[in-house]
Amino acid sequence: MLTHLEIDIENIKMKIFNMADLSIEAVSSAIISLKKVDLKLAKKIIQNDSIIDKLEIDIDNECIKILATRQPAATDLRFILAILKVNTDLERIADLAVNIAHEVLQINGQPLIKPLVDIPRMSEIAIEMIKEGFVSITEKNVEKAKNVITMDDEIDKLNIQVNRELFTYMVESFKNISQGLCLIGVAKALERIGDHAKNIAERAVYYIQGDDIRHKSKKG
Amino acid sequence: MLTHLEIDIENIKMKIFNMADLSIEAVSSAIISLKKVDLKLAKKIIQNDSIIDKLEIDIDNECIKILATRQPAATDLRFILAILKVNTDLERIADLAVNIAHEVLQINGQPLIKPLVDIPRMSEIAIEMIKEGFVSITEKNVEKAKNVITMDDEIDKLNIQVNRELFTYMVESFKNISQGLCLIGVAKALERIGDHAKNIAERAVYYIQGDDIRHKSKKG
Question: Are B57 and A167 an interchain contact pair (Cβ–Cβ within 8 Å)?
């Protein structure tokens, strides 16, 4: 039979997986709305964000209740603490999808100044990172989590590439500046989504082995 | 005599106040480096970030140790959980100061295309928000924390104004596009620093009265 704590943890797992699904869907839909210049879809993403906001508060409260009443130790404590932080990252990811949707509304149905290749690629990598981060939590697979962390470099490189390319479009004609700024905003949002996905993988490593690997890739 | 838990909490308080001071200094120095086009100072901000990164991990570990060994309840539990989240916000604020420093390096000593008024104003408000957020924690003053939350609107308004103004400079001459993008990046970083400062005030309210006020200002 499961203990109260085990039941609570299963419950939290279900909710955080649901939260991850909703955040991924928000990012994916935001990029579809951009590619198709679909204002209706962009508006829907903005509206749906309140569902994710409510779920974030719900998950936080569940975690706090477990800490207060079940006094989890070792792996269970690390799991709850990791979920508390992952939850914030997922909510921020959904917020960034909303930022992208706002850029789409700003573009306001105008034809795109260039075909989008790198931006959709950035979103694909970011979504893959979130998914694999969660697989690494389920499988307690540190190698998989560490692999996710390295994937962020690819997104950062694409962001620089997108910025450089859009800059040339903007210099070429002042008519491209307005949309160029929107697309730079989209790429920036995806770069930040990649950062949050990386955070999730870092929390996964902490949960699995109790090792805090944040900032270790930085100099020094 | 103080209990072990009380001693631990005082210790954490000292560290998180130190973390706040360092983050504020990073933001303040970043704006000085921009105004003075001071590349040396910008580089120093980037270098110093590793100190803040280490302190973040230290504070997180202290919080986790308290949760694992002292099993705090009620206000103390809320305090530790609030600090865990505030700690992340402060580290992100320092990271955003680093982003600003990178924009300064990108500008690379070129004279500024316009006198800076709104950008320094944004940074002043953001710093005031962080300071007041911490005062509200010390004084357990909910009204002060709620006041901080409303200050974020002013930063958002200034960000829109800065963007609009820089857009006109960029359209006016393609020579302004490169630096215009840097200054838009600075304003965006300050807007996000304001968001994190707002988060800190929201955590303060949660700590003081156990009420989660996140997302309440949003529609619905």
Answer: no
Whole-model pTM over 0.90: yes
Q: For A158-190, write each residue's pLDDT tens digit.
A: 999 999 999 999 999 999 999 999 999 999 999
Residue A210 above 90 pLDDT?
no
Terminus-to-terminus CA distance in chain A, angstroms? 48
A71, A177, A215: residue with CB nearest B171: A177
pLDDT at A4 over 70: yes
Residue carrying the six token digits 């005599």 = B1
- Is there a contact between B94 and B26 (Cβ–Cβ < 8 Å)? yes
Q: Among A70, A205, A214, pick the best mutation site for testing chain B contact (most B Cβ within 10 A).
A: A214
The CA distance from B198 to B145, in Å, is 9
DSSP class of A111: P
State the Cα–Cα distance between residues B171 and A181, nearest whole angstrom. Answer: 12
Q: How far apart are CA B187 and CA B118, in angstroms?
A: 9
Which residue in the set A50, A177, A188 is minimally distant from B218, CB to CB?
A: A50
What's the CA gap between B37 and B179, in Å, rounded?
Answer: 12
Angle between helices B39-70 and A74-107 (to 10 degrees): 140
Contact A88 B84 (CB under 8 A): no
Query: Is pLDDT at A211 greater than 90 in this prediction?
Result: no
pLDDT at B159 over 60: yes
CA distance A19 to chain B (A): 16
ipTM: 0.89
The shortest C-alpha distance from A38 to chain B (Å) reads 23
